[in-house]
Amino acid sequence: MNALYSLFAVFVLILVGMGGTAAGMTHLFGVVIPYLAIAIFFVGFVAKVIGWAKSPVPFRIPTTGGQMKSHDWIRHSKLDNPQTTGQTIARMALEILCFRSLFRNLAVQRFGSTEDGVDMKVRYASSKWLWGFALLFHYSFLIVFVRHFRLFTDPVPGFLSGLEFFDGLLQLGVPTLYLTDVFLVLGATFLLLRRALLPQVRYISLVADYFPLFLILSVACSGIMMRYFGKTDIMAVKELTMGLFSFAPAAHIEGIGAIFYIHLFLVCVLIAYFPFSKLMHLGGVFLSPTRNLPNDNRAKHHRNPWNDPNVKAHSYADYEDEFREKMVEAGLPVEKGLDEAAQTEAQ
Ligand code: HEM
């Protein structure tokens, strides 16, 4: 049902875009809504980031998956349990650029089952599909996004032409097929089917999980229709986009078809929805204290700066001072022996 609600919502959005253009509201859809969407995006994004940045993180709370730095003869897992800022940056870079934690994702497999399931065994096996398609999807999206800058720049920077050249390297069809268009749709479809078909993922999937995928697919498909089937007047589009960028939007531009306004409207909804959705992992991944902190808990003492001075804390050292004799008597390990403690007290 959640998938159907999301699909329905995207259909309504497409109808709104179509209806608006048919009614001649091109100024609303070509100028007002894009500005509004960008304003919502910036305010929402900044507010979210400020909110996260203001959350107190007095202690080191990274999630770790390997040996912490310890004795010299125990091998330290530098990437999975970073001790220094440099190691943390390396861990973050691998996570952000290569989705390393997803690469290490394991799938549970059941095998050897009998009728009543008594002999069923469970094992964990490497599962690279999700990682592969997630990478394909995100990098294709990024390249499609960056390629669009040719619509906003005049003259078009050289590196964009280079990107277009490599993206269309197969030289298939007229206009040339961009590989990233195919990969983007392929990646998003895989992520959608995984949610809809795998029972354990479907069980935890909400409208907020399906809606962005359907929305991104509709943006990609409307763009593809425009480029390969509908044929839009790119010069007219460029006049509009350059006008928007220079804050001097053109009043009315001839020759831009309805499909462009639908594409733009869907993009605007995506942009405005972004800060309030799971898509904010784009910003969140950098600010996650379970990732961006070195695990130096044993090496450094981290004192909570928000500790109330009026509240008397009882540290382990205090505890040991209080019960040292009894602990030694009971044969419990102590950090300071009786002699050492007496010496320190005498000083
Ligand atoms: C999240 C942002 C966007 C995504 C994911 C997206 C996606 C796509 C895709 C997949 C295509 C097919 C051809 C290609 O890859 O170049 C396309 C084409 C197109 N898009 Fe977008 N788009 C986005 C934003 C925009 C914006 C903001 C505009 C204009 C203001 C725009 C205008 C166009 C135009 C005019 C085409 C046709 C290009 C051609 O005929 O070569 N798109 N878009």
In short:
By secondary structure, this protein is mostly helical. Helices cover 58% and strands 3% of the residues. The chain is built from 14 helices and two strands; from the N terminus they run ααααββαααααααααα.
Topology:
Layout: H1 2-22, H2 26-54, H3 85-98, H4 100-103, E1 106-111, E2 121-126, H5 129-147, H6 158-167, H7 179-197, H8 199-202, H9 207-230, H10 234-245, H11 258-273, H12 281-287, H13 316-329, H14 338-346
Antiparallel strand pairs: 1-2
Bound molecules: protoporphyrin IX containing FE.
Domain NarG-like: 127-282
GO molecular function, one term: nitrate reductase activity
Main location: membrane
- How many domains is the backbone divided into? 2
Structural class determined from secondary elements: mainly alpha
Average the pLDDT over all residues and give the rounded result: 89
CATH topology of the largest domain: Fumarate Reductase Cytochrome B subunit
Shape field:
elongated
Total beta-strand segments: 2
**For the largest beta sheet, what order do the strands appear in spatially?**
1-2
